[in-house]
Amino acid sequence: MDQFAGLNKQALGLWLDVTSRSVQSDGPDLTARQTALMLTVYLEAGPHTVRALAQRLGVGKPAIVRAIDTLQDVGLVERRPDPADRRNIFVVGTEAGAERLSTYAASIARNIAEITQVGRTITVDESDEAIALQKLA
């Protein structure tokens, strides 16, 4: 399993640790699509419509509607009518959603701090891997 050596293994280990902490919480388990939608709503400037979210995430509107339904059911986002066009709705964050993302961000920051404390320097190969991974993102 050489493909999981070095920086790849460290990055995946970080993802595992953060994901493990997330599933240990009392909150709902979210799919990758729901998480991506939630991050988009909270981190990118709105307003967020179903059409814009579907386009941003590269999925169909029905998939976005299902993800919004689930996130709204657990209180992590809300639908609000567009004051200029009541046929349209905006998807907005909630206090509960912001708290969940803050907890998730703290977990990521804690893991980064742990990695940094080790004081490990990366090799040239790992640096090349990081550059290649960044180009894929």
Number of helices, where a helix is a run of at least 4 consecutive DSSP H or I residues? 6
Domain count: the total is: 1
Would you report the number of β strands? 2
CATH C-level class is Mainly Alpha
For the biggest sheet, the summary is:
2 strands, antiparallel
Can you characterise this structure?
By secondary structure, the protein is mainly alpha-helical. It has a single domain (29-136), classed as Orthogonal Bundle (Arc Repressor Mutant, subunit A). The protein has six helices and two strands, in the order ααααββαα. It has helices at residues 6-24, 32-43, 50-57, 61-73, 95-118, 124-136, and strands at residues 77-82, 85-93. The protein has a two-stranded antiparallel sheet. Strand 1 (77-82) and strand 2 form a beta hairpin. Helix 2 crosses helix 4 (61-73) and helix 3 (50-57) packs across helix 4. The radius of gyration is 18 Å and the shape is elongated. The protein starts with 5 loop residues before the first helix and ends with a helix. The mean pLDDT is 83.
